[in-house]
Amino acid sequence: MSAEPAISVKGLTKRFGDKTVVNDVSLTVQRGEIAGFLGPNGSGKTTTIRLMCGLLTPDAGEGIVLGHDIRKEARRIKLKVGYMTQRFSFYEDLTIEENLRFVAGLYRLKRARKVVEETLQDLGLHSRRKQLAGSLSGGWKQRLALAACIMHKPDLLLLDEPTAGVDPKARREFWDEIHALAAKGLTVLVSTHYMDEAERCHRINYIAYGTLVARGTVEEVVAEAGLTTLLLTGTSAQTSKAGARLKGAQGVEQVAHFGADLHVVGRDGAALRASAERVAADTGCTLTASETSLEDVFIRLMSESADNMQ
Amino acid sequence: MISRLFSLARLGTLIAKESIQMRRDKLTFGMMLGVPLMQLVLFGFAINTDPKELPAALVAPTQDRYTRAMVTALELTDYYRFIAPDASAAEAERMIARGDVAFVVTVPSDFGRRVARGDHPTILIEADASDPSVASGAISTLSEVAADALLRETGQEAEAAQRAATQLRVAVHRRYNPEGITQYNIVPGLLGVILQLTMVMMTSMALTRETERGTMENLLSMPATPLEIMLGKIVPYLIVGAVQVAVVLLAARAMFSIPFVGSLSLLLFGVFVFVLALVILGYLISTVSRTQMQAMQLTFFFFLPSLLLSGFMFPFRGMPLWAQYLGEVFPLTHFLRLVRGVMLKGADLADVAAPLAALGIFAALLTLVTLARFRRTLD
Question: In chain A, which residues fall in CATH 3.40.50.300?
Fold first, then answer.
């Protein structure tokens, strides 16, 4: 890992009209790292990614991506970055092969024909290369988009919710591919809503309402949140009764049903335990300690920053 | 509850939703109000199928009283407006070829003498019949007016004038289109109209499609410069335009037997500049439109007045001055002068320099505005 980070942005701010979409975001991603970029819908993830690859100009702040200034050297950054948009943005009325040739041509790749040929082989789409891209299923579109993004051998991959609407098997394969690429030295910044995907990242960054509120490894983020999580088990009738009583009880911040199980989360461990013990005894549920999940932390972070907004 | 086949409440909900959507799309809403208003003003005030006060040149080496009487009488008909009252024959020829004047009235130097002698005085009126409708009204009143003018002369020459009036000969030359065939006017003009509609619409939709389908974001994230993207969009449509030109010109010759007296290379050069201006205009429209629908609406918003005010459907010189000034804004106006000049009048480069320059300025200005407006980023 070289000393200079792949992404280093400071105080990035972007406004659309009077709405501040990205507010003072500072972010560092080391080379070869898979960085998760998380946050609720409309939290400014896409805008931040666009700022980093030169598609938008920041209103304030500065940044260096792959050694280039995001304000002045957007063209150089574009040559070294692969950006996969949230929505499939290749030409649906072009065939798979035509799309790849188009991309290869724009990057002026040497021996483009051969590169396209190899990419088709790697994708396993060689036999379907004459098929229109628009007729591909969601999973295949995503694979095609990823293949097109890495054809020019970028140093940094920016993926904006790449697995939205893709089935679990395709998602698993996609992440295997991302890890393989990272092992070869590629840096990856990936935005996602899925907790299991967040846990596959080396480090995660959590953005809410335009502000970066947490960062670190999954363990660090969970530990830093300082939450206590308890589990109530019993019949579904028992746990639903317990859930209703625990909502708003002292020390209880989150109550979530997982099948017949009940997850209760709070920062004040003692108060939480007292409330849960009382309710468990009344409803006949069994109370056990549990591990705090990333999801518990994120929901906590979301409600926290929502409060700050008001 | 049984769902009724028709419910007023449900209909009301649908109507309310539609109205909200209509109001949200500001551009469409503006056009719904703007287009009828524009049509009213243009059709109501600007268009005149019996054009009056047409520009004319007078070639009269001897400006005697008979000549002056003739000129006054012609002006009183309201059909003629002498913008060049003392032109030489060569100047007048140039002016009618360029389309600066619709008529050249020539009063020969011996006109006064012939009136005095009662010896068949003759005046020559040359009309630019490349637009037959321009010439017809003005010509039909001619002989009578001219004779009356002489009759009004009083004094000692009154008797001679009276005699001369009965013998007055008015020679009318319908220049460029002696038979007054409407197609001669329409078909070359159609070249401009067809090119305008397809070129502007195609280009404006092509780029908007990228924005609408989200492929623009991808395109911008890859290394392509605005100039490359713009040229990449424009060049294919220039080729389509070239095919259209070939088709229209061949059809003009084969189906309508339109004469082609000028230089083909000059015409093709003019067509190229015109198409360039159109394609860039289409590109400009696409930088302001968010959807293909909007691009199409803007294209028509531009297309309609240019059709009416360019001189394609109605005589340009027949419109009131404000409408003529407005008409100068449209590339089509200048292209029509060029194409009719070259095809029908055999105009040379010097004759069509003005429309050519106008088209060139359009193309250059539009390029500057478009490149400035192009969003390299998504801001």
Answer: 7-222
